[in-house]
């Protein structure tokens, strides 16, 4: 959409606007608009902003101010005249009952006092009279709108362009924090639209990224990206499996049986939210406060600015809303935001520092990752001295150079990352970052497989990879050898004791106890931990081998299928993909591993060293239900389900004795089709042996 050169120009132009005040001419306003539209595209479309939110807000405010001073220069396509757009072509578009607006921003106590003063003026309330406000978190996820009619959830949508959004009802139905039914009729409400935010807990977010790393997928920079992505999954069960949660923060619209707007029959925002809580919705609780006046608002906002680090979710500020709807009504709206609400933005967790060096690290399966070494800088409570640069494209898109001053942000309170370089601070001494053509460890020429972002060293015995794999093998999630950290692996390797996995199980504890700083106790402890690990089951063992795409959950699935890990050598791809959620990529990697004689010899060697190869009792699959309507049958769901979420459907099928599988093959018995079933239905019909049924027929069968 934008050429690189143009992007650079727009970025530099933004810096100019940020650095100097502009006198309004039509061309300058146009230039500013173009820059803002560009940053919106980077943020909403690419999820990859090149300026901080604060800087974007400054640009936006500058445009608003220029336009307010020059009303004749406002054009209908100005960013101030619409709300941002995230429509995609993948989902049907639906119109919101009332527009979903944005929020105006404030940054300090003074801004909040100005806001309070404005409300007094707009609502014509004398300055001495306190106005009540509700303060609640400004969740940083994806906005959603939910429509309930006759007490049933009938529609879910993204915010889209504010007027229309993507219809994602099925994905919303998959979220357990969203009730499918709610007794609005008890409150005389026939139709209602609720506003909220779909977000991912920070601990969940870390798990998701861990899993993605295992599966060699790119990690999400922050929980917001993970959440907005999850909202638009094609398969609702995937939305749910990301652990998305919906917080409801606003009653948008309410209508009674005669079609009258009855929103104001609930006189305050506070009561509206309490009602929603009583109907089973997830609403902010301790993080929400009904404040008597603006002083309480300011205290609560500042209190949360400090508390945000310990909160379970990523929040980028608080939202202050006038409590009484009658006062809200007097304040009204601009085309961009309600005048009765304002966001209090927390201080950005950003800092600038110098990019000193780039190191290239080789991962356990050879992927080469550039890591920036920074001049240590304090960032929201931690010192950051090194950040991942992901891959070559990242370095290029940010135009990073050695010696650059860079802006670093701690996104999602978890992973620090480089937002951008500050090219205007260059003095000419900066140098290009040279990407290695050979492995920094073993010098093998690097390759870049098609469709992948990372360069790879394909030398399986490359020392750096071997070390990484050993570190992985002993790690907590793999063989879980207590006390056997990276330091020991490196030290034993340097001593020549540890070159391959079996060496772990033949360490000489006598010699170890004589090592400097070791002693008998440490050696005994390590022996005990290693002996314990020998009794692990198949899941940990399989995961410990660093096979591409074989993460923890995949390993657990295979562990339930075989009695001895080596039985997997007889499995075909067709058999493997019948396991739920196992695809051809995983199957092919596993087959490759078990085809290699060396790996089979490795397993035998490990067994001779006392490592267990057999399935544990805890890994045995739960007995299948034998007297269900679908007992002994395999089942597959395809297309968009209208009534149930995918997860619900699968759970129901299992409860009825069926075994869900993930591909159409000769072993498939039942195919349940939703809307737009596609190639799976075609294939099933061609086979002629598959019973095809609709979602309704499926439900009828299981409730018979
Ligand atoms: S109220 C008419 N309350 O912030 C009221 N918005 O810039 C307008 N957001 O993407 C929104 N937490 O989804 C409101 N407690 C909260 C919020 C909240 C997060 C998001 C909202 C929108 C953006 C508004």
Overview of this protein structure:
- It contains 25 helices and 22 strands.
- It has 6 domains: about 5-80, Helix Hairpins (Orthogonal Bundle); about 105-345, DNA ligase/mRNA capping enzyme (D-amino Acid Aminotransferase, Chain A, domain 1); about 350-430, OB fold (Dihydrolipoamide Acetyltransferase, E2P); about 465-535, DNA polymerase, domain 1 (Orthogonal Bundle); about 540-620, DNA polymerase, domain 1 (Orthogonal Bundle), CATH 1.10.150.20; about 635-704, Rossmann fold (3-Layer(aba) Sandwich).
- α1 (about 5-20) packs across α2 (about 25-45), α4 (about 110-120) packs antiparallel against α10 and α18 (about 540-545) packs across α19 (about 550-560).
- The protein is about 35% helix and about 20% strand.
- The strands form 6 sheets. A 5-stranded mixed beta sheet has the order 2-11-10-3-9. It has a 5-stranded antiparallel beta sheet with strand order 14-13-12-16-17.
- By secondary structure, the protein is an alpha+beta fold.
- The protein is globular.
- The model is unreliable at about 80-90 (pLDDT under 50).
- The site of 2-(butylsulfanyl)adenosine has 14 residues, from β3 and β8.
Task: Spell out the key features of this protein.
alpha+beta, single chain, about 700 residues, binds 2-(butylsulfanyl)adenosine, OB fold (Dihydrolipoamide Acetyltransferase, E2P), Helix Hairpins, 25 helices, D-amino Acid Aminotransferase, Chain A, domain 1, 6 domains
């Amino acid at each position: 959409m934008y050429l690189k050169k143009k992007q650079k120009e727009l970025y530099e132009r933004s810096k100019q606007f940020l650095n100097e005040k502009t006198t309004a001419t039509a061309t300058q306003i146009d230039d500013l608009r173009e820059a803002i539209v560009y940053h919106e595209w980077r943020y909403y479309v690419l999820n990859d902003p090149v300026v901080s939110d604060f800087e974007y807000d400054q640009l936006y405010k500058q445009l608003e101010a220029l336009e307010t001073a020059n009303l004749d220069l406002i054009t209908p396509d100005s960013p101030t005249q619409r709300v941002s757009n995230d429509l995609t072509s993948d989902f049907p578009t639906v119109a919101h009952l009332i527009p979903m607006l944005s929020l105006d921003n404030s940054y300090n106590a003074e801004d909040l006092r100005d806001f309070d003063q404005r409300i007094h003026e707009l609502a014509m309330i004398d300055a001495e009279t306190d106005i009540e406000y509700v303060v609640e978190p400004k969740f940083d996820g994806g906005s959603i709108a939910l429509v309930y009619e006759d007490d049933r959830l009938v529609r879910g949508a993204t915010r889209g362009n504010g007027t229309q959004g993507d219809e994602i009802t099925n994905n919303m139905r998959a979220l357990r924090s969203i009730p499918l039914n709610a007794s609005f009729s008890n409150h005389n409400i026939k139709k209602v639209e609720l506003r909220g935010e779909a977000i991912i807990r920070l601990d969940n977010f870390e798990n998701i990224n861990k899993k993605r790393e295992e599966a060699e997928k790119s990690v999400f920079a922050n929980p917001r990206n993970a959440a907005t992505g999850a909202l638009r999954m094609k398969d609702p069960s995937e939305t749910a499996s990301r652990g998305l949660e919906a917080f409801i923060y606003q009653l948008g619209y309410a209508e009674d049986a005669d079609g009258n707007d009855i929103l104001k029959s609930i006189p305050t925002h506070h009561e509206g939210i309490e009602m929603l809580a009583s109907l089973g919705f997830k609403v902010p609780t301790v993080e929400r406060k009904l404040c008597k006046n603006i002083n309480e608002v300011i205290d609560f906002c500042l209190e949360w600015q400090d508390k945000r680090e310990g909160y379970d979710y990523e929040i980028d500020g608080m939202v202050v809303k006038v409590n009484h709807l009658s006062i809200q009504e007097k304040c009204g709206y601009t085309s961009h935001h309600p005048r009765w609400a304002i966001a209090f933005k927390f201080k950005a967790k950003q800092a600038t520092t110098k990019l000193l060096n780039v190191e290239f690290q080789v991962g356990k399966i050879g992927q080469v990752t550039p890591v920036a070494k920074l001049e240590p800088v304090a960032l929201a409570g931690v010192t950051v001295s090194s950040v991942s640069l992901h891959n070559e494209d990242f370095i290029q898109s940010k135009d990073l150079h050695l010696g650059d001053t860079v802006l670093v942000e701690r996104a999602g309170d978890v992973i620090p990352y480089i937002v951008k370089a500050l090219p205007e601070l260059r003095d000419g001494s900066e140098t290009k970052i040279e990407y290695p053509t050979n492995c920094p460890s073993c010098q093998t020429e690097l390759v870049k497989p098609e469709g992948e972002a990372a360069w790879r060293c394909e030398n399986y015995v490359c020392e750096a990879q071997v070390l990484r794999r050993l570190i992985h093998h002993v790690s907590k999630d793999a063989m879980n050898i207590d006390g056997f950290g990276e330091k020991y692996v490196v030290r034993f390797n340097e001593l020549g004791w540890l070159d391959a996995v079996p060496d772990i199980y033949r360490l000489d504890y006598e010699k170890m106890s004589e090592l400097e700083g070791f002693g008998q106790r440490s050696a005994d402890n390590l022996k005990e931990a290693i002996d314990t690990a020998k009794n692990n089951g198949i899941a940990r063992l399989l995961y410990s081998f660093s096979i591409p795409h074989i993460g923890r959950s995949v390993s657990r699935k295979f562990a339930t299928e075989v009695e001895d890990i080596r039985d997997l050598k007889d499995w075909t791809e067709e058999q493997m993909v019948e396991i739920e959620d196992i695809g051809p990529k995983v199957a092919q990697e596993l087959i490759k591993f078990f085809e290699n004689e060396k790996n089979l010899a490795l397993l035998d060697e490990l067994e001779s060293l006392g490592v267990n190869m057999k399935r544990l009792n805890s890994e045995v699959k739960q007995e299948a239900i034998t007297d269900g309507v679908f007992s002994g049958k395999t089942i597959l769901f395809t297309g968009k389900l209208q009534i149930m979420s995918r997860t619900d459907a699968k759970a129901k099928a299992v409860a009825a004795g069926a075994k869900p599988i993930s591909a159409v093959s000769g072993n498939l018995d039942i195919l349940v089709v939703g809307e737009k079933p596609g190639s799976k239905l075609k294939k099933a019909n061609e086979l002629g042996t598959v019973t095809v049924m609709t979602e309704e027929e499926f439900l009828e069968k299981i409730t018979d």
